[in-house]
Amino acid sequence: MMSRIFFYCTLALYGGATVAYLTYLLRTTPLLATWANRLISAGFVAHLLSTIHLSVLTGQLPITNMHESLSFFSLTIVGAFIYFERTYKVAILGSFVTPLALLAIIASSALPDEIKHLSPILRSNWFWIHALMAFVSYAAFTITFATSAMYLIQEHFLKKKHFGALFRKLPSLDTMDDISYRCLTIGFPLLTMAIISGAIWLEQTVGSYWNWSDKKQIWSLITWFIYAALLHGRLTTGWRGRRAALLSILGFIVLLTTFIGMKHSISW
């Protein structure tokens, strides 16, 4: 089908963009960054067309199984990256973000993509609100993770007084800290709304707002507390730099583990 053709075009373009961005880490070639950006932008368009076509075909947003969810996760990551790369003019951000998007869509391609009838449990509007808020927050936190990793690398170079080619490509510590903080202020409210709407969806489904035996809910709450602590620290005690970067990375690892490794106790 057409959506599958667009999907595999996306896979190829994301792969090419990832190779180009990783090569850009080693070679100071502005033209390479330009082509990497063109490839990832073309991949995003193909991915968007694949998602739209599948949505029209099924009459629903394709986020109802792990194959679709990983693909949509990859789409939101790339969309967030394109926005921040163009806003801050930080091409090297792609060297840290595109491999994550590529891994997500490769994992998606390895999973069954059979289209099934929508489960009655997923027909609630609250499910769609919950899922969309969650995915956009995940994309924001992915950018936070990438900029935090870049921050730690740049800080290491400064401490060691190693001012090589990679040091010159990385933006200033203040720029990376600003991007990370901006993504945090976007991602945290969305994650909060995702958890609240998810609780309402659960109440409509099983008659209870919270299920303490559901590992995904528990770890989602743990993720929320990590990012809440990070945001509180930044707003009240001025947490910046290394401490904030390390906590951002921890939060993303827990988020990713929750998203991929944990399953809801209710059956879809």
Describe the structure.
The structure is a single chain. Helix content is 79%, strand content 0%. The chain has helices at 2-26, 30-58, 66-88, 93-109, 125-160, 165-169, 173-206, 215-236, 241-261. Helix 3 (66-88) crosses helix 5 and helix 5 (125-160) packs antiparallel against helix 7. By secondary structure, the chain is mainly alpha-helical. It folds into 2 domains: 1-118; 119-268, no CATH class. The longest helix has 36 residues, at 125-160. The protein is built from 9 helices and no strands.
Main sheet summary: none
Q: What is the strand tally? A: 0
- Give me the secondary-structure category: mainly alpha
Q: How many helical stretches?
A: 9
**Radius of gyration in whole Å, from Cα?**
19 Å
